[in-house]
Amino acid sequence: MRKKYDFSKAKRGPVTPSPGKTRITIMLDDDVIEHFRKRAEDSGTGYQTLINAALRQNVSASSNELDDPPLTVSSLRKVLREELHVT
Hints:
Elements: H1 30-43, H2 47-67, H3 73-84
């Protein structure tokens, strides 16, 4: 059977590259993996896709927080004065 196939020019890895993605090795807790596998089974999608979506959502939320200027003492005083101002 080996004589039928010529693997001399074959390459290891996925058949098609995934542009915009990088293969990494990461250690996750067993309960986290099981949670995403259960959700993936229920939704009919891959658990790695769900993990990626959760990470993307977290990155998006944290980048939105960075867009807001930090609360300083002077800005807090200004807001309090505006809110407590009695006319």
